[in-house]
Amino acid sequence: MQVKTRFAPSPTGYLHVGGARTALFSWLYARHTGGRFVLRIEDTDRERSTQSAIDAILESMQWLGLNWEEGPFYQTKRFDRYREVVERLLAQGKAYKCYCSKERLEEMRNEQMQKGEKPRYDRHCLHDHSEHAPDEPYVVRFLNPDSGKVEFDDVVKGHLEFDNRELDDFIILRSDGTPTYNFCVVVDDVDMGITHVIRGDDHVNNTPRQINLYKALGAPVPVFCHLAMILGDDGTKLSKRHGAVSVMQYREDGYLPQALVNYLVRLGWSHGDQEIFSQEEMIELFSLEAITKSASGFNTKKLDWLNAHYMKTMPAEEVAAELVWHLQRQGVNSLEGGPAPALVVKCYAERCHTLKEMAQKARCYYEEITGYDEAGVKKWIKEGSVQLLKEALALLKEQSVWEGQALDEALQALAQRLECGMGKLGQPLRLALTGTATSPGIGDTLQLCGRERSLMRIERAIAAFSAR
Ligand code: GLU
Known about the structure:
Blueprint (H helix, E strand, L loop, with lengths): L3 E4 L9 H17 L2 E6 L9 H14 L5 E5 L4 H13 L3 E4 L3 H13 L9 H4 L11 E4 L6 E6 L3 E6 L7 E3 L7 H11 L4 E5 L6 H10 L6 E5 L2 E2 L15 H6 L4 H9 L13 H7 L10 E2 L2 H14 L2 H14 L11 H8 L6 H8 L11 H7 L4 H14 L5 H15 L3 H13 L7 H8 L1 H16 L2
Parallel strand pairs: 1-2, 2-3, 9-10, 11-12
Antiparallel strand pairs: 4-5, 5-8, 6-7
Helix pairs in contact: 1-10, 6-7, 9-11, 12-13, 12-14, 16-17, 16-18, 16-20, 17-19, 18-19, 18-20
The structure holds glutamic acid.
């Protein structure tokens, strides 16, 4: 049997960390088993679903590299199919029309509550419709078995049992003709041949109702795998209060998708005490059995650590693609002139926590600097600094190879000859080149700046610092 999993978000907001983790686990399980992964947009709640949320979900999935073989399917495009299945269940006596008014249902509820009973529909409309005209508004209810139990073995939670008497004859079609969530999910999962339903455990209580529907439809019941929720650093359910929770916000904040994916896989899944997993390793090692039962806690420090790791160890060209996005985001055009973004990555990966920070630090190589850091000037521009800059300028003009290491060596030789120490020479140069006193090695900084821009900036700094 080929495994088929799906991710089925409701587009009522951005894709958050919890949803992304569900998507990742479903995707990984399909990849691991050589199966297929389906993306389904559950947009039947037309009031709360928006196109911008759909776009954000698709964009986030693509950014994370979670590609799907089938879909995206949209539930709103499948209404005819749902109607067809409702009609079938009605014809088979497995569902029935209910004409009860809001008032009647309200009254029934109150009575049941007063008697201390769990409110549930009393099946008033199951047998007798004689008092209703066919054009009166009605809902369609599923005829849930009224005795026995629903049992299933959840991969994460183990054996679960629900008493059928606890379950209502729930509505599958509303009076406005729209189908309900529990119904659409089952029809879709059956039609799409889903073998493994991996989702958040906020859906555990829907599962017995859904299993009864599978049975009524004569369809095989899939394997269920309900993931424990993700908690924030402080032990409460992860929410906006804990900072960024939307996947795209992590991109904005300068994280690499590889870091976020690696971070997410460890939220509720483990393989010994290994923390770093390449995509290939994740796919190879992932199993549903190793998913943890307990809720997992979000830990921003660990995500930061992973991000630093990936910035340093991934091929610079790959990181550069993401850096270019950040530069663009900050209004910096890195595609016409300036250093190759991969060189920026090589020189800055060790010096930054995020790509956002890297882009901020690197913008001086792509556009004009507007001034000099006051504190840096105070600290490093002393009597003699201008003279040193002049010496450096003369030396640099002679350099034929504009490359980090060669430039470093030339300047070191100069510092030795002038007996001034590299700091006295390097810091004023950094200020001249970047406007700040912190940058990579001076040779690399010169290479990043480029020959012409470097010479021009040193000349300009000589003028500016002489005037002081
Ligand atoms: N659309 C549901 C949600 O976003 C998921 C349904 C499911 O996975 O079965 O919570």
